[in-house]
Please model this.
Amino acid sequence: MRHLDGDILLSATDLMRFMGCAHATTLDLGRLRGEGPEPGETTEGALLLQKQGDAHEAGHLQKLKSAGTSVIEIPRSDLAADAQATRAALAQGAEVVFQGAFLSGNWGGWSDFLQRVDRPSHLGPFSYEVADTKLKRSVQPKHVLQLVLYSDLLAKVQVVAPEFAHVELGSGERATLRLADFQHYARAARARLEAFVADPRPTRPVPCADCGLCRWAGHCEGVWQAEDSLFNIANVTRGQVKKLEAAGVSTMAALAALTEPVRGMAAGTQARLVTQARLQHGRKSGVRLHRCARIISGRTGSLKRKRSRWHVNHSSQLPVAVEWLPPTPRPVHSQAFHSPSGEMDQPHPLAPEGWPPFPQPLNLNLTPPFTPVPKLAPLHPILPPHTRTRRPASVRISSAICGSGTSRSTAPSS
Model:
């Protein structure tokens, strides 16, 4: 995206970025006007992909030359001059034109390959079709946007619309697309981008698949942290955030204090998100929280942490179900909290001000098959001095087998 003769020149890259994240386009427009934040540096992952893509493109070019195909290469320089050179190369009837350039209206760019086919056009008894090299092993929707754009720009040169477009995949295979099947979608996407550039609408940063390689990722991350956004919560989805915001919950702190049900959200999903929000908000506010668990069916077992997940290990063949309790502030040995009635109906003395009382223990993660057992005695979340290590390798958990008894748990900080 850049200025050209007083207008904004758009490219296939701008179109693909807009369809993936409209907020990135908003930041690009602000950058073009000299406003807004500075983009971040290109990540190592993006540089590596670019290097591999260039190598794949060069390998395909060498393959064509080795097969005796006549190739005209257009040295990349000024877009307008390259577009004129491409027109001249197409008129000569070369079998392949490499790095052909197009410029028409407010759209332009460089294609990878233009391949000659036996179909009459304004150029003569032949015409050209677009071929692009991609590292992917299958054609992606964003590839279609690029191929249709270059094919439409090519049609203005040869006066005949190409029938097909091709993708040289990273697997070595060639995918051929019938443009008539995709051109309406791609042209509608271009119209949406043109309308957005002419009259930008307000946007906000939303996590998407393009964040990993986006130059604005650092800026968006800073916005989420400053706003205490719901997107900071681990494993939350955009649909869940939309439902929470519709219910008036717009920050992680508000979700941590949520006690009312959210319309359209399952109770188990809400409990999991509230639990996660309390854990993360407690860490952010300086209050160390921990989760207590107990085995409510099966024999003596243990919880072990593997790859940031807790797994239940047991030596019997009986089914095992784990009951996760709501997070509580990590108690000091002399200040362990326990309600004789068996309910966590009072805020923990170390809980941040304003937090609601913790509800009854919830069965958040039951491993089927589950055999109901009588309710166990209340859990004592006591951390003996000799077990208060920073990151214990495993935690032993014992329980009565299908009967009443006292469960005792030593849970690590999360």
About this structure: The chain has a mean pLDDT of 75. The first strand starts at residue 2 and ends at 4.
